[in-house]
Design goal:
Elements: H1 6-47, H2 54-78, H3 82-104, H4 111-131, H5 134-137
Helix pairs in contact: 1-2, 1-4, 2-3, 3-4
């Protein structure tokens, strides 16, 4: 006898998961857009013969890379990957802490770069909080091993 409710239950969880991840994906898309815009600003500055310190290039490139990685992981988690959700739960708070540390170092970056970095951190912070809420864990049940089934 087959369980005819199984597809409906998994479809329901999938719909709940997609809805739960909508704000996370929007926040991380904003993070990506702000990071990419900063790289565009740096390129425009160089084109207009302004000097851009290597530290700024490296930091902004790393932030853009982290934005891409976080968004890809979040998209995978939204599609149901428990492993991606766990990675996102670990990496997103690390990104927030890294931004706080970098922004708080006096004189390390110009104020306009620190502001952009702070905006990025403020976009990742609520995403990190959301993915670590207990209700998110219910959307990623642990697999039942065949030995206990």
């Amino acid at each position: 006898m087959t369980n005819t409710n199984a597809p409906q239950v998994s479809t329901g969880i999938a719909a709940l998961r997609r809805a739960a991840f909508r704000p996370v994906l929007l926040l991380l898309t904003g993070f990506l857009v702000v990071s990419a815009a900063m790289i565009a600003v740096l390129v425009a500055m160089v084109v207009n013969h302004a000097s851009v310190d290597t530290t700024i290039w490296i930091r902004c490139s790393l932030v853009l890379a982290s934005a891409v990685v976080l968004l890809l992981i979040a998209a995978s988690a939204a599609r149901g990957s428990r492993a991606a959700w766990i990675r996102l739960r670990i990496i997103s708070p690390i990104v927030v802490v890294a931004v706080i540390v970098i922004v708080s170092i006096p004189g390390f970056l110009p104020d306009w770069v620190r502001l952009e970095q702070a905006v990025c951190g403020l976009l990742v912070l609520p995403a990190a909080i959301i993915v670590n809420l207990p209700r998110m864990g219910r959307l990623f049940p642990k697999a039942v091993s065949s030995a206990t089934a």
